[in-house]
Design goal:
- The structure is a homodimer of 334-residue chains.
- Chain A is of the alpha/beta class.
- The first copy, chain A, has 2 domains: 3-126 and 303-332, Medium-chain alcohol dehydrogenases, catalytic domain (Quinone Oxidoreductase, Chain A, domain 1), CATH 3.90.180; 130-278, Rossmann fold, CATH 3.40.50.720.
- Chain A contains 9 helices and 15 strands.
- The first copy, chain A, has helices at residues 51-55, 130-143, 161-170, 182-190, 205-211, 226-232, 263-267, 284-296, 313-320; strands at residues 3-9, 24-30, 39-47, 76-83, 93-96, 103-106, 112-113, 150-154, 174-179, 196-199, 217-222, 236-244, 271-274, 304-308, 328-332.
- In chain A, strands 3, 4, 5, 6, 7, 14 and 15 form a 7-stranded mixed sheet that branches. A 6-stranded parallel sheet of chain A has the order 10-9-8-11-12-13, sandwiched between helices.
- In chain A, helix 2 packs across helix 8.
- Chain A is globular and about 60 Å long.
- Chains A and B meet through helix 7 and strand 13 of A and helix 7 and strand 13 of B.
- Strand 13 of chain A pairs antiparallel with strand 13 of chain B, so a sheet runs across the interface.
Chain lengths: 334, 334
């Protein structure tokens, strides 16, 4: 019987403090046997996502708290190796919530079969998965950019942000990214087709941002918060929409995210809406169809940071909060 | 020729300071003669509204700044006394933007004919006018309360708030008001049908508010801001909606209105939307039909504070920012 390896949450970070490698622990066990109705999956790729930081705390986030000493939850793609469930057979490629481990059991409820064909299987954790549908939901259902409008997205080269910008361009809007460092900014413009991308680490970030916004901001897809949100909020046009998707700058207490003057919302008639893609599963079919069409047509590009082996997951995860990843952060498990 | 009397803006209040009687001045002149295509209206009632405070400042509000030494703008109902416009004849009852004066000229564009019948003419400045449609737009188009939900409205006995609560009740929701003083709170519950109304001047306002919200807040129709908004924001349920209509607590610098922690919007998936009823005139026919139906059926109640004579307009207006009005603030001009 093969050995299963997984990462458990060993301890919780102190409130408003950085998570550390010591919060995680590698555990080994025999790979489990599927019971009646169950499916055993060999996970191929694990998705690392900022929302997992919220789950590490006991305080109520929008997702349930991660139980201590249990394997960290997370999205995975993999292959069925044994099945007592008539809907799945060995060899099936699936996307599921296998967590930070090599093998996982599922009763089939949380598994979806996929047919990768020419598209690499890990795309179901990126542009064809939760990040892609998140981008789609915020752009299409909250911001709904018109052709003449300007949409700004922070963490622009990330798994979500990169899709946001390309959906904005597909809608005919001006897409302006915010990213950390000249390399990411150049990639956003040259490879992803953003009209501009501003480096938030630049000394004159404020002036560069203003320069990239000759017609102000109509839509802001906010992944970061903190100073980034604060500076953007000075550029809103009337009837601006904010899709509030993440506040990674505030997750570990680095920068507070606040709106100092609510009258901005009133005077400019803004809409600010927080959302989580899993709240409305009815969006997925339409989103997947449109995203799949863009990918098939060669009109949606993305980039991956791939860590090798389950042992590398904690460091790769912690690196995301330092902006070390470039594109979708994955862990290759096979 | 009769004498026209009007109130002009004599000077602007200092930023973040109270407006004073000295900011206004009474002027007299001959009543104007209608030119080609023009209509002369004898104004019967003038509407006083909080948005006018924003217009007194030079800083950009959501409405154009009131020019100095010109008659203050404002909604009016009145009667046509002379007309060179084929669409209007003497005796027609109209609602328009006649401003703070006894007589006004209009080219007809901003006038709407009304047929008061059994409904008092000044209702077109209240539940059948801008305040009523404002309430309708925020309740129906932003909050959209479901029957099991709780809707909170501040300034609950005002021209807008009173309609908000009654529309919430008509939709089957729990309506909780916030108002200043026991008399207004009793009126909200006994006459307007609110389920509860909390006195923000009470020492234990915080505890009283919590007690009135056994199932939290699903919709907040915000007219006040400041501490009132701050305390309400602790009670939001997931997917709460805020219709941001006014921030009267902040208009004169008394209390800042802010959202200290944006993560609240994210974690609870809130929607906060600023709106102004004049932004979408297409809402008016539907709103007027529904509001008119409720009034005709005896299901919409309201109250007026009526100041007598144009000379009383400045004091009545300034009193609104102290909560001295009880219901819709009008000035009777005839």
């Amino acid at each position: 019987m093969p050995i299963n390896k997984g990462i458990v949450l060993a301890s919780r970070p102190a409130p408003l403090s950085k998570a550390t490698p010591e919060n995680f622990r590698l555990v080994e066990s025999a790979s489990p046997e599927p019971g009646p109705g169950q499916v055993l999956v060999r996970n191929t790729y694990l998705s690392l996502d900022p929302y997992m930081r919220g789950r590490m705390e006991e305080t109520k986030s929008y997702v349930a708290s991660q139980p201590l000493l249990e394997v960290m939850g997370g999205g995975t793609v993999g292959e069925v190796v044994a099945s007592n469930n008539p809907s799945f057979k060995p060899g099936d490629k699936i996307v599921g919530m296998g967590g930070w481990q090599l093998y996982s059991l599922d009763d089939g409820q949380a598994l979806r079969k996929i047919e990768p064909g020419k598209i690499p299987i890990q795309a179901w954790l990126g542009p064809l998965g939760m990040p892609g549908v998140t981008a789609w939901a915020g752009v299409k259902r909250i911001i709904a950019p018109k052709a003449v409008e300007t949409l700004v997205v922070s963490a622009a080269t990330g798994a979500v942000g990169s899709v946001v910008g390309q959906l904005a361009k597909a809608a005919g809007a001006r897409a302006v990214g915010i990213a950390g460092g000249p390399e990411k900014c150049a990639y956003a413009v040259k490879e992803l087709g953003f009209d501009a991308c501003v480096d938030h680490r630049a000394e004159n970030f404020d002036a560069l941002l203003a320069g990239a916004l000759p017609r102000g901001i109509d839509g802001l897809f906010e992944n970061v918060g903190g100073r980034c949100f604060d500076l953007c909020s000075r550029h809103f046009n009337d009837f601006g929409r904010v899709a509030l998707c993440g506040l990674i700058a505030s997750y570990e207490g680095k920068e507070p995210s606040s709106l100092r003057d609510l009258s901005l919302i009133l005077v400019k008639r803004l809409k600010i809406q927080g959302f989580i893609v899993s709240d409305d599963m009815s969006l997925w079919p339409q989103a997947m169809m449109e995203l799949g069409g863009l990918i098939a047509g060669g009109k949606l590009h993305w980039r991956e940071s791939v860590a090798e082996g389950i042992e590398s997951a904690p460091a790769a995860f912690l690196g995301m909060f330092e902006g070390k990843n470039f594109g979708k952060q994955l862990v290759k498990l096979v």
